[in-house]
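cron nightly-structures :: item 1 of 1
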Amino acid sequence: METKKLKECCTIIRGRADNNAHDNTTDNGIPFVRPVDFENLFPSPTKYTSQPIQIANKNDILMIIDGNNAGSVNFAQSKLAIGTGVIAIRPSSLLHPFYVFCFLKSIESKLSSMATGTALKQLRIDSIEDVDIALPTIAEQSQVAEHLMQSALKIESLKLEITKEEDKLNTIIKDTFK
């Protein structure tokens, strides 16, 4: 099976910080993703910006490159602004985006171990660009990606249900033992 370096089949967009003048928590603008917003699969931004500097598109792979969580990846389900410490990896037409996400998810610990620095770990862009990825046919990638996406969405749905049930339980406990 053919392999390529990520730099040969993906574009990397480095997040940028704005001056916070356009950041808000009132859903004004587009979601603004920072490393603290990363979850297991999809980010949960709590801030928005009306004047984004760098954009991740739907189906881009997001990666933390600064701090203790360097190497962690999330999948963009919509257009997002990306801040400092986050990059967007945009696959070319040779790759199914969720296939790339799952591949990078599978090597998160390897990516994390590539980060250097003592005070603040940093994952260098050239290290990410030099990662080899196997390239099965796009049909094979799509088949794998669709199966994995269905499982991932089911897991996220179950997590939401668990959270709702925990909230109900906590409400009942508080009401019962006032």
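cron nightly-structures :: done
The radius of gyration is 18 Å.
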